[in-house]
Amino acid sequence: MKDPAVLVVDDNRDHLELTVLALSQCCDPDRVATAADGAEALDFLLARGRHADRAGRRLPRLVILDMKLVPMPGLEVLRRIRANPRTARVPVVIHSSSTEKCDITACYAAGANSYIGKATDFEELCRKIRHVYEFWVLVNEG
Description:
By secondary structure, this protein is an alpha/beta fold. It is built from five helices and five strands. The protein has a single domain, classed as Rossmann fold (3-Layer(aba) Sandwich).
């Protein structure tokens, strides 16, 4: 695999696959990595455990992170990403079905760069993911 541009983290297999499929509409699928839970995402980003071979490799330009992960919630994953000097500046977009103001506020307080609601249909998902990808990977200087 090439160094990934995007890491998608979601413990719901269907949501993970749909997000990756939506990304494939706007970027090279070989540049998308996935993690099925928060621990795997942190291992990937920090090049440890089964991802130890990533040591010295480039970080993704963007992490799309589900907020309601189990057993480690997305908010805790975000806090750990921000707490580590290696990953502290990686853009993290929270992707959640929650529209609760307290959830959105908590994510921004923990260091989220953006918060997007999960789509109700595939066309909407593709539109949202395309905008996120274009801004954070193609437009944003980072």
